[in-house]
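FIELD: query
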Amino acid sequence: EATQSRAGLVHHFTKAEGTHSVLLRPVADLLPSYRCRGACFSDRLLGAFGFNPLIDRPVLILKGERYCVPVPSLAVLAATRGLYYDCLERLPDSERKRFMTWFGFAFESYVGKLLRSSIDCSSVWSEPKYAGPRGEMGGPDWVARVANTVLAIECRSGRLHKRAKTEADYDEIAALLHRNVLDTLLKLPAKIEDLASGSAGIELDQGLDYMPIVVIYEPLHPHAMFISMIREELSSQNLGDMEFELMSVEDLEYWLAWSQYGNICQVLREKWSDPDTRDSDTRSYLGRRARDTGIKEFRHPLLEAEFNRFWHDAVPELWARIRNPPLSGAGESVDSVS
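FIELD: result
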């Protein structure tokens, strides 16, 4: 009952957009999706997992033409980012490959834009190309120096298909983990060695610390479980002591925004040094740090400017009221407008 009005809004929106068949599903279809896997989830935990039948169709049809949205955020996801997956999976194979190639370059470019808007541009380099024993070699996608630390950043835009997200297809998940993360991490030590020796063509001081970072398009949940799987594989390759950070692009945005409050490399080292936080996702860790230090909200300056531009163009009247709130006692308060 508490979500009925919100579900009604979602249903109205989807009918207007002609996509309500994508968003709606009978509740009877949902329950077997869990039972057939022997899963045992309480309702309050439905939104906590990245593998969830509700990702496909988040609005449930109940008896008597009533609707329910168990996880409202998934309804928003289906009507926004979810369209990317729906459209992509309907493209012919040749066009899908072309788009994914383009998207990979666009994703890598965006990561560089975030770095250059947070770190001195003279200390950020795109993938260096240099001569190696087997011909031309490529370094990390991005190299950035922050004080006495060098960030070796690889970008991977691959993502799971929607079916793997709704059914928790283990084979596809394992393949993505190897392709996007493990194979990338296994190559990073050699690339870092070339950076440190100077053979990669970037002039860096001797004795600097290096931080391996892999940035992926979207987060992997539950994060700690995936990190554990990755560490097991690294141990089998005698790299069990390798420190690294796996970030979604949203994690990266938050991490770079932390530069307003302190050294971003230091905060990552502190995360790694605590066994309780070492394998947690970056964004959650920074959220806890922000609360502990009294920081109410922080956002990357680049995104802040884009959000402000959006509100200014989309809802100019609301924007004007937020920027120039009425005097106390004269209409709505700033909090109610916000």
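FIELD: remark
Residues 277 and 285 are 7 Å apart (CA to CA).
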